Amino acid sequence: MNLAALTTLRVGGPARELRETDSEAELIDAVRTADTDGAPLLVVGGGSNLLVADEGFDGVVVRDRREDVSLVNDGACGGLSITAAAGTPWDTLVAQAVASKWSGFEALSGIPGSTGATPVQNVGAYGAEVKDIVAVVRTWDREAGSVKTLPLVKAEFGYRDSMLKRTMTHGPWGPTPRYVVLEVTFHTRMASLSAPVRYQQLATALGVELGARVPITDVREAVLALRASKGMVLDAADHDTWSAGSFFTNPIVHAEAVPADAPRYPAAEGLVKTSAAWLIEHAGFARGFAVRDDARATLSTKHTLALTNRGAATAADVVELARAVRDGVRDAFGITLVPEPVAVGVEI
Asked: What mean pLDDT comes out for the span 55-80?
């Protein structure tokens, strides 16, 4: 099977072997067998954060098909604990959370991919991050050959970062995890109102002030609408959604490195976070930008932060576009954008 079929960018050549697992025991066995055989390993969830080489992957691809969600604690003591198998589609879990009035998930609506991938990247949107609701990440530790449970403090979350991500091993086929996520437990509470709205664009869409709390269903609807307007909600008929979402992370740099009129938000001491999309646009890359007239990969026509497959793009096409944008921003502002997707067998 070509990995293009398992990724939202829809690029990538064949896998030497694909193992799809339907139980935790099968998942662990597939990983352990690959390690025993010395085979390169790629664990695929929703494929929303992968850029796979046209040559494919000369190793074992493991895909977790489990979608189990269980309520561990019913909230009688003031909180809820919900455990989801790693293979559970993230937005399926968010939809269930909103319908069940499990507060804290709503601003993370519409994000593609699997639940197991969310703590690795510490996914976030509209002022919320998954670290805000994660309690425990249960994993298979490939180095120790045993199950390891990581409480929140051990996950060491940062901006689009975690200990899970930092402990990946980088080989010729790209990064491979030391810890394979088995399931994630979230801690929240029952509430009909959302967590405080922290993102101005979302507050404006909702017609409220920052810090307001509104019905969680309203937040989900507003976030889905905002994401759809940017081509960030998967739609097979819309090539703007044939992407890996935001392709570059927002840079965190010294304050003096940011152009005077660029957005800036406090980060660590002496550092600020600025907008990758603003830098891309002001470096001269408009929506729909292509490196040539017949290019098969372009910037989204809705949002400059997404690199998209217009229907027949290859990984090489996406890499060429990514390099052009990265180099153009660096030439214009001296800031080097960092790609967000995991590159498998390619170098950006």
From this structure: 87
